[in-house]
Amino acid sequence: MSALPPNATIGIVGGGQLGRMSALAAARLGYRCHILSPEQDCPAALVSARHTLADYEDSNALRRFAGAVDVITFEFENVSAAGLELLASLVPVRPGPTVLRISQDRVAEKSFVNGLGIPTAPWRQVETPEELEQAVAALGLPAILKTTRLGYDGKGQAMLRSAEDYRAFSTLEPKPLILEGFVDFACEISVIVARNPQGEVTCFDPVENRHRHHILDLTLAPAPIAPETAATAVAIARAIAAGLDLVGLLAVEMFVTADNRVVVNEIAPRPHNSGHWTIDACPASQFEMHIRAVAGLPLPPARRHADAVMKNLVGPDEISQWPEILRTEGLIAHHYGKTEARPGRKMGHVTRLFPLGALPGPFGIADALGPVAPQA
Ligand code: AMP
Q1: What's domain 185-372's architecture?
Q2: Mutate-to-test residue for ligand 1 from 124, 144, 145, 148, highest number of ligand atoms within 8 A of CB
Q3: Which CATH class is domain 122-181?
Q4: How far, in Å, is the centroid of ligand 1 from the Cα of 265?
Q5: How does strand 177-181 pair with strand 143-147?
Q6: What three-state secondary structure class fits 199?
Q7: Which of 265, 273, 274 is the pocket-test mutation for ligand 1 (most atoms within 8 Å of CB)?
Q8: Peptide bond just before 298 cis, omega within 30 deg
Q9: Which of 99, 161, 214, 240 would staple 95 via disulfide (CB 3.0–4.6 Å)?
Q10: Among the atoms of ligand 1, which is closest to the Cα of residue 121?
Q11: From the CA of 165, how far away is ligand 1's center (Å)?
């Protein structure tokens, strides 16, 4: 396929910060973006040429949107299969509907990953209380009961430690659920890989992700893991991208165990919060790679010119540090333009760069983040 020429229009389904940063990267490459989102003044629409203000299931709006763009991608995964099929019948959708269907459903996702010979936590699909008991008997406790669809940032899941916790079965919706054996991980990492229609692949280095209240708090680039472990993680991400025949960007979240096994947790076929550091530490960020892949442009090596720490600014408390952040030398500040700071809402992030190989330890990181130092 030929590359999308400058001034072409990229349609982005979803209006959040991932769409916003993709649109900013697209603008630099000479493209226009058209956002489909039901939210007025959403972060992505505020920096894009056009906005179709409509629900993701509004088929008339989907048709109008598809008619006005040259290619469609998304920053939001929970579009219905029917909606996606409709879009894909009218204009190229990248990544394609099959990729989205797999990543939207934890059972489909784990079956696919295991089918490639790649390990995940042991798991069982659970549709009834009896199946939950059988699954616990097979996997043991502790275990994590999750919805198969529509979960994010720790929502739609419950830790089971004893039989008392089985009552989570009735509160978790929608069914079916999945029970996952608990992985006693040493750290959580992710790898972001891009693949274009020509089959070129490029992969960012594995990073470590630290969460707070189930929401990503810090990303350390690179992850402080052994080179062989990093190589395994990269090989896994590449194999998944190839297996999916991916066109676009894919984040693979993984656990690293104390004995250096790498286990896939989940995949997201879009830019990922754990790749925000690439805006400031790489010649081409994850967002540029996303746009390049979707537009059929060449993919440069996903090399970093600096080590980095990224800290999310979540909720009213952290974003209230904004004036202080702007005054702090060395903090690279990103604000998503959201007007309302609700608890748990991602409002922005900061990145701090370090010379290659000079990522500091925990105290150094806290020091470097100044007004938004993570709490011990
Ligand atoms: P998820 O929504 O699947 O990304 O899960 C959110 C977080 O819960 C992960 O980042 C982990 O910290 C934790 N978690 C999820 N699944 C497991 C598991 N099978 N074993 C241990 N921790 C898990």
Answers
A1: 2-Layer Sandwich (3.30)
A2: 144
A3: alpha beta
A4: 7
A5: antiparallel
A6: coil
A7: 265
A8: no
A9: 99
A10: 19
A11: 17
Reading the block at residue 95, the tokens are 């990544």
Positions of the chain with pLDDT lower than 70, given as ranges: 1, 151-154, 376
Condensed to tens digits (0 to 9), the pLDDT of residues 228-286 reads: 999 999 999 999 999 999 999 999 999 999 999 999 999 999 999 999 999 999 999 99
pTM over 0.85: yes
CA distance 34 to 10: 6
Amino acid identity, position 160:
L
Residue boundaries of the structural domains of the chain:
9-93, 122-181, 185-372
Q: Residue 179: CB within 6 Å of ligand 1?
A: no
Dig out the tokens for 66 from the structure. 């598809």
**Rounded to an integer, what distance in angstroms lies between the CA atom of residue 321 and that of residue 305?**
28
* 177: amino acid identity, one letter: L
Q: Give 263 Cα–ligand 1 centroid separation in angstroms.
A: 11
Query: Does domain 9-93 match CATH 3.40.50.20?
Result: yes
